[in-house]
């Protein structure tokens, strides 16, 4: 057993040099690099790395709520809290064929959390890096309360892109979405693939388990493969909103796109003792190789 006292971030490495950095602040993945050492996640140059503020970039965890309805703070408190390391995590499952480097983090509610959200839970977040450099986040949220509770959840992943105008998402065409720019009104996607020319703040509903983000300029495709996460968050603040965020550069919207799996439209209800598991794996490949995934 290692002595983790005083550790505030963990670096996972693959044998061929890919890496991921995980911070105990928010249980947030703050860096993911490929074998060439290129950073694949966006973090703002103006990010504030001080709890209780969540870091602007990487993979913030939105829990127990996505958005800002009710008494909880926007996107819930999990991303603002200091998580702990589980020194004796359960082993990887035997059918997990690749060699993987992984870490398990835990979050349990504090007295203060219980005052604004009176439900006892245990949140286990496993971050794993496979030999091929793909990054997986597995969340297991367990009700350790005497009563049922409901929650919504999202991985608010900031992907790094070369130029947002050259990016498109495949896998969400023809689906319904809730538009946060129009009081969560429901629309149906009409286009062939999703492209960006203004602010986008949407939750796509009943999505397939594989979604791809194609960056033409960098000739890179991010493939997101997920399970237990029916919805997909898509967010780019564009010019005006960027200027209103203190922890985000005025032009940085061009280099980022938030996309990942979520459970929002139909919150999860957990009975006492029950758990909900979700999975989201990201991998990159050259454009045009999607069918190989
Ligand atoms: C989006 C929300 O998913 O996250 C937006 O729908 C919000 O309304 C954005 O601006 C970023 O949220 P935050 O709390 O990290 O600034």
TrEMBL record:
The keyword Isomerase applies. It catalyses: alpha-D-glucose 6-phosphate = beta-D-glucose 6-phosphate. Keywords: Isomerase. One of its GO terms (cellular component) is cytoplasm. One of its GO terms (molecular function) is carbohydrate binding. Substrate binds at residues 56, 74, 79. InterPro entries: Aldose_1/G6P_1-epimerase (IPR008183), G6P_1-epimerase (IPR025532), Gal_mutarotase_sf_dom (IPR011013), GH-type_carb-bd (IPR014718). It is an enzyme of class 5 (isomerase). GO terms for biological process: carbohydrate metabolic process. Its EC number is 5.1.3.15. It holds the Pfam family Aldose_epim. Signal peptide: none annotated. Belongs to the glucose-6-phosphate 1-epimerase family. This is glucose-6-phosphate 1-epimerase.
